[in-house]
Specification:
Layout lengths: L1 H17 L3 H22 L4 H24 L9 H36 L15 H24 L12
Helix pairs in contact: 1-2, 1-4, 2-3, 2-5
C-alpha cells in the first residue's frame, strides 16, 4: 500500500511538470499534499503531524487558488491527447516497476529496520523523521516545496508587468 502511494506521488510529480493551466497545477499540488500526508500517517504512531501538515498545505493552496482565480479566470482548460498518452505510458511503466523492483527494495528495507530495532515504540522521537525509513517523506516534502517554488516563479514573470492592472 505504501509503495503504491509513493508511486502515485512520483506520477503526480511527473504530471505536474507537464501541466500548462494553473488550476491543473494546483490540483496536482493538492494530490501531492494528500499523498505525502498519507505516507506520513502510515509511518508514525500519531496522525497529528500529517493532519497539521495537510491543514497548512490546504491553507497555502487556498491562497494560491484565490491568486490564480484573479489572474487566469477566463483561460480555457484544454486536454492534450499527447499528455494523456504520456500519462498512460508512465502509469504502466510505474506499475511494472512497482511489482518487480520495489517489492525487493521494500523487503530489504524491512530487514534493515528489524536488524536495527527501529520498530520499538521507545525509539520514537523527532529524529525518526530524518532517519532511514522516514527519510523518503522528508525528500518528498523538499521536492514538493521546490515544485511549488517553480510554479510561483512561472506565474510571476517580471517581463509581463504587475499581476493585476489597476483601473
Amino acid at each position: 500500500m505504501k509503495m503504491t502511494i509513493i508511486m502515485m506521488f512520483m506520477l503526480s510529480s511527473t504530471l505536474f511538470l507537464m501541466m500548462k493551466h494553473p488550476l491543473s497545477s494546483g490540483f496536482m499540488l493538492l494530490m501531492q499534499t494528500t499523498f505525502s500526508c498519507m505516507i506520513n500517517s502510515m509511518n508514525s504512531y500519531s496522525y497529528w503531524f500529517s493532519y497539521i501538515l495537510f491543514i497548512i498545505f490546504i491553507g497555502g493552496m487556498m491562497v494560491l487558488f484565490i491568486y490564480i482565480a484573479s489572474i487566469a479566470s477566463n483561460e480555457k482548460f484544454k486536454f492534450s491527447m499527447k499528455t494523456m498518452m504520456l500519462m498512460t505510458m508512465i502509469t504502466i511503466i510505474m506499475m511494472m516497476i512497482d511489482s518487480t523492483i520495489m517489492n525487493n527494495m521494500m523487503n530489504e528495507m524491512m530487514l534493515y529496520i528489524k536488524n536495527t530495532k527501529m520498530s520499538n515504540k521507545e525509539m520514537m522521537s523527532i529524529m525518526k523523521m530524518f532517519n532511514f525509513p522516514m527519510m523518503m517523506l522528508s525528500m518528498l516534502t523538499i521536492i514538493y516545496l521546490l515544485l511549488t517554488l517553480i510554479a510561483v516563479v512561472k506565474i510571476t514573470m517580471i517581463e509581463k508587468g504587475p499581476l493585476r492592472m489597476k483601473n
